[in-house]
């Protein structure tokens, strides 16, 4: 897969997070790809929403700096890149399902994509809004009534969005855990 003028890609579907095999691939169309250095390591990665193919109407895929293509958990219809500072960026993928807005936020760490915990698997009917250089988490109930609206900040150490003013959750070190 190469991002070029046509934005056509060939890929195979081998399951979630598996690398696409070349040679047995189905032709699909990549719309509105975003290519950037998401983790600040000087190498460009990309995310794209792929349409077509035999097995999916739309899928979100990650392309690493070596041009390997990976299927992400949530397909989408729109993508927004958020600059979270210090050379790092995340991509917010959203879609509407049965009248409700769902989203996933993906980042890149050490060249590999990951899904941030704030994604709608844990926060149904929500979205992230960026206004005046600040990020806000907004959640709605099943009737579309706003139930939460608060500022969030990107915690660089954990690679996650956290509520503004709250302490980030430290990542445990399994090597130094004392079980005595």
What does this structure look like?
- The strands form three sheets. Strands 1-2-3-4-5 form a five-stranded antiparallel beta sheet, with no helix packed on it. A four-stranded antiparallel beta sheet has the order 6-7-8-9, with no helix packed on it.
- The chain is mainly beta and 180 residues long.
- The protein contains no helices and 13 strands.
Task: Describe how the helices and strands are arranged.
Blueprint: E1 8-11, E2 26-36, E3 45-52, E4 58-63, E5 69-71, E6 78-85, E7 88-97, E8 100-109, E9 112-115, E10 126-131, E11 134-140, E12 146-155, E13 160-163
Antiparallel strand pairs: 1-2, 2-3, 3-4, 4-5, 6-7, 7-8, 8-9, 10-11, 11-12, 12-13
Unreliable segments of 5+ consecutive residues: 1-27
In total, the number of strands is 13
Main β-sheet, spatial strand arrangement: 1-2-3-4-5
What is Rg?
Answer: 17 Å
User: Termini separation (Å)?
Assistant: 50 Å
Secondary-structure-based class equals mainly beta
Question: How large is the share of residues in beta strands?
Answer: over 45%
Helix content: under 10%
Shape: globular
Number of helices: 0
Mean pLDDT: 75
Secondary-structure element series: EEEEEEEEEEEEE
- Tell me the major beta sheet: 5 strands, antiparallel
């Amino acid at each position: 897969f190469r991002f070029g003028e046509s934005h056509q890609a060939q890929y195979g579907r081998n399951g979630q997070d598996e690398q696409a095999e070349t040679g047995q691939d189905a032709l699909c169309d990549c719309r509105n790809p975003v290519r950037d250095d998401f983790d600040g390591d000087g190498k460009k990665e990309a995310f794209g929403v792929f349409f077509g193919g035999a097995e999916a109407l739309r899928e979100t895929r990650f392309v690493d700096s070596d041009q390997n293509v990976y299927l992400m958990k949530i397909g989408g219809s729109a993508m927004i890149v958020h600059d979270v500072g210090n050379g790092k960026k995340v991509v917010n993928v959203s879609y509407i399902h049965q009248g409700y807005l769902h989203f996933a936020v993906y980042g890149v760490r050490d060249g590999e994509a990951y899904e941030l915990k704030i994604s709608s698997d844990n926060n149904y009917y929500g979205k992230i809004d960026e206004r005046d250089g600040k990020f806000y988490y907004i959640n709605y109930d099943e009737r579309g009534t706003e139930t939460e609206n608060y500022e969030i900040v990107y915690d660089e150490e954990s690679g996650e969005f956290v509520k503004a003013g709250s302490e980030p959750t430290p990542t445990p070190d399994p090597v130094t855990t004392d079980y005595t």
